[in-house]
User: Fold these one by one.
Assistant:
Number 1:
Amino acid sequence: MLFTTETLLSQDSWWKEKKYKTEEKQRKFNNCKKVLVDISDGLMYSNVNYLIPHFQNEVYLSIQNNEKGYYNREQSSYIIESFFTTYPVSSFKWKNSSRSERYAFALGKYKYKKGGFINTFTISVSLKYIDDLWQIDQIIVN
């Protein structure tokens, strides 16, 4: 049996599929899901390059209350790479999400190994719909 990424993702419980009145709206929210999947892949593979294309010019970051504030793309990339180095991922999975015309939000669990133990962070990501693109507005790690 052959599974494509799209088939598997459509079964994810974190994204509630909806029917939209127009194809344009359907495409808009399919793009939103794709951005969240890219972010998930970036977190799962500790690869900030999955996230960078979706950064706004400034992104609000709150990483374990150590790094907190608005950062440009380059600074955001550096901070997230540092997070990946400090907390090597064991697994990442979105738990739930919501979306509206201009905003989207997803909440997930980031498991990492430190000192021989598996620990968990909750990661929330907010997206904003700007110029026909879903862009990362903020990332919060607790």
Number 2:
Amino acid sequence: MSTPAAQTPATTFNPRENGSDYFWYQQRIQAISSAAPTANAQINLDADSDFYCVALTSVTDINTAGLGAAYTESTAPLPLVSLLITDTGSGKNLMNGPLMIPGFTGDGKRPYRFVRPRVFMANATIQLAFSGVFLAAGTSYDIQIIFHGYKVYR
């Protein structure tokens, strides 16, 4: 017995044929430091599609006195900054409290992959609450959080 074509999951992303496509959402914060240890940001999701997140990465740059430090794979900093992620579409936090960023995000080569995709509904907002209360005096970070996934268009 064969499965009808409409019920067969797509094996490729093609927005014209099956209404899905790769997509990345990102948000940056700048100059989180011991002098300004908290920051909030949000990602407004598009109204035309649900977003299925499959992985998280972060990129951090140490910014001391306005001068960016040399950034290579071996010198990529692990920020002592915690992050709480909230999905307004479901009204739920993704964790029971803020987690240290290196503990649940990967780098570009080794993203933190989810066991199953996490869906964020169309028109929702992902709220990001950063806290750098563990930062040393004079240290300032610029941090980009990247949600890897795919869109399923409505």
Number 3:
Amino acid sequence: MKLSRAERNCNPGNIRKSTDMFNGEIRPSQDVEFKQFVDMDYGFRAMWAIMKSYYYRHHCVTIRMIINRWAPPSDKRNHADVYAAFVAKKAGLKEDERLKFNYEGMGKVVLAMAQFESGYTKPEWERHCRKGFEMIFRRP
């Protein structure tokens, strides 16, 4: 099986290049469009950092609100309705259900987003997703 671009870049959310810098980011990225990370733990960590900002700073508290910001419908390449429906189904939630910002409330959402971005998922991604969450929220 050929690896997806998201997996090759260790960037499960296909986070686009920007001036924002994340821990574990490889600069300069060798990908023309997307960021690269040293491993999947850091790729998921970056997703969690963005999710935290969306939730607390931008008040994106439902799957639909998150996806409309992550993959804005104004960008003609994005199909936000399809994306939100996919994530909701995979996470077992409703698109407009208010989410709780903890691993139990958002972990399935982040994993479903990674699956949508990659076109597939792998069992070990749950471990990487949890580790990325812990890197953001658990202090030694």
Number 4:
Amino acid sequence: MYEGSKCAVATPRSSGKIGLMAERAPSLGDLEALAERALTTIPRALKRHLAPLVIRVEEFPDEETEAAMELESPFDILGLYRGVALPHKSLTDPRAQMDMVFLYRRPILDYWCESGEDLGDVVRHVLIHEIGHHLGFSDEDMERIEEGGGAG
């Protein structure tokens, strides 16, 4: 377990785990690195359905997203999948844009500080959650996938 206030002093290690460091909170780049590592661990049940995926880490959702999602606060959302949901894709439709997962740094760090979970695990969970919704999986399906049991 971490000692002291990890919220302002954590930095990713090459192992993907977060270590303590007195200089700074994890940056946008730190979360991008954790997301890229987490993407390599996404279960095959999800990966096999993914086209090339862009992961963007931003401080908060933009105002348009906040309004569309009817958020009370920008801290109410950790991530968002933008793209055409797999059940609605057609082979004859032109691909308008890349599928993207947005991770929101400040809300993720806030959740991390409150939960005490490993930051790499939080980022991985958000990725699985957003990708799973895009593929039409329920929350229960995604829990099974995260635990290694596959989609039901």
